[in-house]
Design a protein that fits this description.
Number of helices: 47
Structural class: mainly alpha
Number of strands: 9
Largest sheet: 5 strands, parallel
Strand content: under 5%
Radius of gyration: 35 Å
Strand order of the largest sheet: 2-3-4-1-5
Helix content: 55-70%
């Protein structure tokens, strides 16, 4: 490795050793909009805002953040901040006004004038003035003391300020005489009467999933998975204090989403403070009814009423109506925190009694499985007779996709079971935890099952154990599968399928050979996803040899074959199974994922997207309930659905629809463990999409990265290097960018299985921009070899950009034609835009500025269309550079296209448009020659070409826009209003089939060639 790269690696290792906090986004407030509003009011010197929210919603924190921001304000007129004191005595004490006067005198050194002493002494018991008089006096004192500064009154809990002081302060604001801003907080309903204008009460909305993630990751400095933050937000009603306090009671694994959260969540001080007093006022039978509702696993009103002993009238007309909502025969807590508090503060004896009542009711309505669950929870000493029913119930829930509840039931069965039944319960608990994405729990329970000698077959748990250990340890546990690889080399028949004499047995239960085959195929796919093609092929070959011994048949081999082929391991064979085959919901989902990736490799992206959309509609849960049997029968589990959703995101990314890819990734990440599928590819995709849009990594991607269970996997590790190279390139550090890409290429061994393609950055052009054509030539040779792993369209685009970067000026015409031809075959506007950007840069280096201008315009438009705003900004910077050179007179004589970069809504940036329109020729609208390089002949040709499609006035507008004129310039030239010009221009766009001024200019240039 060159010395320069060694030096770079040394610095990179030092940088990697820093704490994770340094890599997080800048600390920003979740209430940024409110803070900006307050700062704008202070800048204007007028305004009054009262932030209202229940305790813990962050109103006081918002006020303190505003205070911090005011201290950081720079300028000659620093605002004077005064605190409004709360009342500590009688409600009419006037202490708050006295405190304001005291702070003002101390800050300014100006004592209260004698004439104002009496009106301002509102704390005097003999005070005989109306509050309005005190407000007028305080306004005069402010005007005399700080005539050239804005006074900011900060009142935390304004509703607790004494009544007369509050009246004086509100009256002061209403007068609007002094330069004064009131910023305050209050609880909902804190005032007996509405506050008068201009005081604005602003309700602080509960934190949504994204804001809860920001709160925990950025402000609380906790590593938390997005779907965990979303659950905390939902179950704690978006209360910031409750979310923060609850998160700090959870383990690292629970925050990362790899261990199951407690249900209900533990009550924390913020919840007790908010609800404890109200719940304490309930009668014993009402609290008992709430506890029954809290431990129930079905939300049927008839069950609740029967178990609580209350009538529906007592629930609807009594205090419980504020806590429970009864609709269509179902009940629900109006506030999910009530369930947490009721359950957390109930005594064990009360919980036991509630479970017994529910067990009795469910038995009476012949729901024995649910009755068994409640009976088990009411049994303190354990009862082995309940275990078969619990195991059966856990399996039923698992088959339906209710994996979290399946885990809870199996865990309860394990606590009551002995011997063989305990091992079976361990397996169910581990399998259910794995399918919910809680891989640490899964590994723990499956290890317990493996230690139950004689109770569980090692082959039975091989598949889920291999998957769980891979996610927990970051690599496939080859030591676990090694004995089964050796088993494939023997010729022993399957004893589950044939007897000692070689006669076939009747199928009875699970076949151990089948279990081993499923375990080996799991290991094969996991190896392929992590780049070890040799180990993947070895495991799959062993699975095929073993499958031939099993006369019962082993399904899923074709799915595995197709899955491996997507990573370049083996041949595609007959392809994956299609819908309608005898597949389980899980197998059908994986089949469609594999099929979609295979179709994308053939550039059939529309068909791939349709296949995944159909699979999601048929297999993904339509209702994610918190109770039993809320999901449709046969729905896929969260672990499987995460594969489906991430495959959808990849297809959108490959299609160049970055906006939709980011939106769907965010929706999935707040519900599902998207960091697990494809060896952490979800992390790499989230980072890459952020880089394409913002040029930096956002909160969601950071959260996925910090909670990733496989941070050293190949997609995550190499993706990080490419992302940093993109960031370096955007900052014009081209040598650093090229070195990072070179490092990624050297790390990625050629004998590896190839990764799923993520559009990133071209190393050939990076070396060219760094001034290293020799390194670029080596990168091109490598790129020609690696391009075979790409889809045809991506292969063409990648090699075209590489050839363009290294081409000579005399090849310009040929390359432009080649790029035009390639562009017609590139469906992705992102890939097409990057290709146009590469060609525009090359033409700029060669000095062909008019041609560079055209291609850079196309790059801006295409990249903006794809949603890749950060890339569009790079293209626009190159375009601005070319425009500057053209303005300096460096354009070649045949330059034709006007330097217009006003691309309409969504196009980043834009250079100023020239002014001063005139006319030339036969009344033809014409910009001054110094302002437009479009020749008269070109304008005549455009007029002739477009005259059949456009009216005379529309044609005049179109020609002025083509020359670079703004709407205002066109209006002045044609003696029209700007609005009329806009109408004409919209008609021009529709008739000519373009969507922006850029596309109109490009079309004009092509027509005028």
């Amino acid at each position: 490795m060159p010395a320069s790269q060694q030096d770079f690696l040394t610095s990179e290792q030092g940088r990697a050793s820093r704490t994770a906090i340094e890599h997080r986004p800048e600390r920003l407030s979740s209430r940024r909009a409110e803070i900006d509003l307050a700062l704008a009011a202070v800048a204007d010197g007028r305004g009054a805002f009262v932030w209202s929210g229940e305790p813990g919603m962050g109103a006081s924190t918002t006020l303190e953040l505003v205070h911090e921001a005011l201290h950081e304000t720079q300028g000659p007129r620093q605002p004077l901040v005064l605190r409004v004191a709360q009342s500590v005595g009688a409600q009419r004490s006037g202490g708050a006004v006295r405190s304001i006067v005291s702070q003002l005198a101390q800050a300014t050194g100006r004592h209260v004038p004698d004439r104002l002493v009496r009106p301002l002494d509102v704390a005097d018991p003999e005070y005989g003035y109306l509050p309005e008089v005190g407000a007028v006096a305080l306004a005069e004192y402010l005007e005399e003391s700080v005539p050239d500064r804005t006074v900011v009154l900060l009142a935390d809990d304004l509703h607790l300020v004494d009544e007369i002081s509050r009246a004086v302060i509100v009256g002061l604001v209403a007068q609007r005489r002094a330069s004064l801003v009131l910023l305050a907080t209050s609880v909902p309903g804190g005032f007996e009467r509405p506050l008068p204008y201009p005081v604005e009460v602003r309700e602080l909305a509960p934190l949504g999933p994204a804001e809860a993630l920001h709160l925990l990751l950025v402000e609380e400095r906790l590593s938390v998975a997005p779907h965990v933050a979303a659950r905390l937000s939902t179950h704690l009603a978006g209360n910031a204090a409750a979310i923060s306090q609850t998160a700090r009671t959870l383990s690292t694994e629970q925050l990362a989403g790899t261990a199951i959260l407690p249900d209900p969540l533990p009550p924390v001080p913020a919840v007790r403070r908010l609800l404890g007093e109200r719940l304490g006022e309930l009668a014993p039978d009402e609290r008992r009814a709430l506890l029954v509702a809290a431990v129930a696993v079905v939300e049927r009103t008839d069950i609740l009423l029967a178990a609580s002993g209350l009538s529906i009238e007592e629930v609807l007309d009594g205090p419980l109506s504020g806590y429970l909502s009864l609709v269509s025969g179902r009940f629900a807590f109006t506030d999910p925190r009530v369930r947490s508090l009721v359950h957390g503060e109930a005594r064990l004896a009360d919980k036991t009694a509630a479970h017994l009542r529910l067990a009795t009711v469910h038995t009476a309505v012949d729901e024995q499985d649910i009755a068994t669950w409640h009976t088990a929870l009411a049994t303190l000493a354990g009862d082995a007779a309940l275990v078969p029913g619990l195991v059966s119930l856990a399996q039923r829930l698992l088959d339906r996709g209710d994996v979290v509840w399946a885990h809870e039931v199996a865990r309860e069965a394990a606590s009551q079971a002995t011997g063989t039944e305990r091992g079976e319960a361990y397996v169910l608990a581990g399998t259910a935890a794995l399918q919910s994405g809680h891989v640490h729990d899964a590994a723990d329970w499956l290890r317990r099952a493996a230690r139950c000698e004689g109770a569980v077959s090692a082959a039975q748990i091989l598949g889920p154990l291999v998957v769980a250990l891979t996610h927990v340890q970051g690599q496939v546990p080859d030591d676990v599968i090694a004995p089964y690889l050796a088993l494939a080399d023997t010729d022993d028949a399957c004893t589950c399928c044939v007897d000692r004499d070689g006669n076939p047995r009747e199928a009875a239960g699970s076949c151990e050979i089948g279990d081993v085959v499923r375990g080996l195929t799991s290991a094969a796919t996991l190896h392929a996803e992590r780049g070890d093609g040799v180990a993947a092929a070895q495991a799959f070959d062993a699975a095929k040899r073993l499958a031939r011994r099993c006369t019962q048949g082993v399904g899923g081999l074709e799915i595995t074959r197709s899955w491996l082929a997507n990573y370049g391991v083996g041949e595609r064979g007959g392809g994956p199974c299609t819908p309608g085959s005898a597949l389980t919901a899980e197998q059908e989902a994986y089949s469609q994922v594999s099929r979609a990736i295979s179709l994308a490799d053939e550039d059939a992206l529309d068909v791939a997207g349709q296949a995944l959309a159909s699979a999601v509609a048929n297999l993904a849960p339509v209702h994610s309930g918190g109770r039993w049997f809320d999901t449709p029968a046969g729905a896929v589990t969260p672990y499987v659905e995460a594969h489906l959703r991430l495959a959808q995101v990849l297809v959108h990314f490959w299609s160049g629809n970055i906006t939709r890819a980011r939106r769907e990734l965010e929706e999935a990440a707040f519900r599902l463990p998207v960091g697990l599928p494809f060896a952490g590819t979800g992390v790499a995709v989230a980072r890459r999409l952020d880089m394409a849009v913002h040029g930096s990594v956002g909160t969601l991607a950071t959260a996925l990265e910090e909670t990733c269970s496989c941070p050293t996997s190949r997609p995550v590790r190499l993706g990080l290097l490419v992302d940093r190279a993109i960031g370096a390139s955007f900052a014009r550090h081209h040598t650093q960018a090229a070195t990072l890409l070179e490092l990624a290429a050297e790390t990625d061994r050629r004998d590896c299985a190839h990764m799923l393609h993520l559009p990133g950055m071209d190393d050939v052009e990076a070396w060219v921009l760094a001034g290293r054509p020799d390194a670029a030539e080596r990168a091109l040779a490598r790129r020609r070899v690696e391009a075979k792993d790409l889809s045809p369209a991506n292969r063409v685009a990648t090699l075209a950009r590489a050839e363009i970067a290294l081409a000579r000026p005399e090849d310009a015409v040929v390359l432009r034609d080649a790029v035009a031809s390639a562009g017609r075959g590139i469906a992705s506007p992102f890939e097409h835009g990057r290709t146009e950007l590469c060609l525009g840069r090359a033409l700029t280096r060669w000095g062909d500025l008019p041609a560079a201008h055209e291609h850079l315009l196309s790059a801006v438009e295409l990249l903006t269309q794809s949603g890749a705003r950060a890339w569009a900004r790079q293209a626009h910077e190159e375009l601005t550079r070319v425009l500057a050179l053209l303005d300096d007179g460096l354009a070649t004589p045949d330059a034709r296209l006007a330097p217009d970069v006003h691309a309409g809504p969504g196009t980043p940036g834009g250079a100023g448009v020239r002014t001063g329109a005139t006319s030339s020729g036969l009344g033809r609208p014409r910009l001054a020659a110094r302002e437009s390089d479009v020749s008269d002949d070109a304008l005549d040709e455009l007029r002739g070409r477009w005259s059949d499609e456009l009216t005379e006035r529309e044609l005049d507008v179109a020609l002025l826009v083509v020359q670079g004129g703004s709407n205002r310039e066109a209006a002045d030239q044609l003696y029209l209003s700007v609005r009329t010009v806009e109408v004409h221009l919209g008609r021009v766009f529709r008739k000519l089939g373009v969507r922006s001024r850029v596309e109109l200019a490009v079309l004009a240039h092509r027509v005028g060639r």
